[in-house]
């Protein structure tokens, strides 16, 4: 009898602890509707980011392309992303992050939807540019909005969850759209993902709180110069240039490499390709929480960049096991994005209205890695094969991420 009572007491204590932990987690959130709409929109955004890599083998067959076509599509997308990061931050300062995020989500999703109706390759290239433009308008405001939806002491977790949603969508886009395109055709699969993105935009419209704009605020050139010339933000952006270079190679080319070089079926290649974003789903909130607690921002960024360079080098071994290892390790390094965006928010180069611009500016240079890296990699593959190309990509990634060692570290940022 006593044993039964003791057991019941232990179960009751355990249940209360779990309930207390859940309540504690919920208390970190200030606006659940905003968080849910942003997380779902970020996942749809990621599907539309990655799905072209998943269906490229089908596009290449229709248009008679080789790996260089994937490089051109990716470059066009990243040019749009890179060119409109800063304008997106300026628009958010003037109109507010909510309106900017909604406009960006709807623009990118409509462009994805229209890709289903293209009949010339140049039309696909042009639409991918506009997908990038829309995503540039959504990203920086999204980071600002998700952080403000959490309590101050948990904003690292909030941005980590936001980035984790991106990788959930990335995994779905890489694997799910490989299978969906095989079943329904690549056009219908892209139309479906464009529709998901439009639904995400409508959720943002319904659940995000209205922007509170400071009366009389105007965008000043002096403030823009303070943000764009800030040394801390520049070093963070250059670090992300290195991280972005390596991530782009793994996330963009791995599925096509597995299909064309290792002769895997689209579904099998999609499963392996999706391992990177699946690992990042865990890494993003984990490093967000770690950021809230640590003072070693610079060291964390360097170590994560070095891990990514190792992952790209492992892919050069040229078998299925090395491909699996490379994607797993690359995904684990994705916490660097969460840390960098959080650190950028802490840099007060100008007034609070420019917080989104600071995040967008840090993201700008690394987005241009998306223009240069895939084009250079595809040319290397054509000339020297995948093995040499992976090794060159690894060395290039490590060289770029080493720039963070020039920074002087402070809590929450680098300067």
Protein model, in words:
The model is unreliable at 4-11, 13-26 and 409-413 (pLDDT under 50). Strands 1-2 form a two-stranded antiparallel sheet. It contains 17 helices and two strands. It has helices at 2-27, 32-63, 67-83, 85-95, 97-115, 121-148, 155-184, 186-207, 221-228, 231-260, 266-273, 275-293, 297-314, 320-332, 335-346, 355-384, 386-401; strands at 409-410, 413-414. The protein has one domain (30-210, 219-414): Growth Hormone, Chain: A (Up-down Bundle), CATH 1.20.1250. Helices cover 82% and strands 1% of the residues. The protein is mostly helical and 415 residues long.
What are the main properties of this structure?
415 residues; mainly alpha; 1% strand
Give the secondary structure arrangement, pairings included.
Layout: H1 2-27, H2 32-63, H3 67-83, H4 85-95, H5 97-115, H6 121-148, H7 155-184, H8 186-207, H9 221-228, H10 231-260, H11 266-273, H12 275-293, H13 297-314, H14 320-332, H15 335-346, H16 355-384, H17 386-401, E1 409-410, E2 413-414
Antiparallel strand pairs: 1-2
Helix pairs in contact: 2-6, 2-7, 2-8, 2-10, 3-6, 3-16, 4-5, 4-6, 4-16, 5-6, 5-8, 6-7, 6-16, 7-8, 7-11, 7-12, 7-15, 10-11, 10-13, 10-14, 10-15, 10-16, 10-17, 12-14, 12-15, 13-14, 13-15, 13-17, 15-16, 16-17
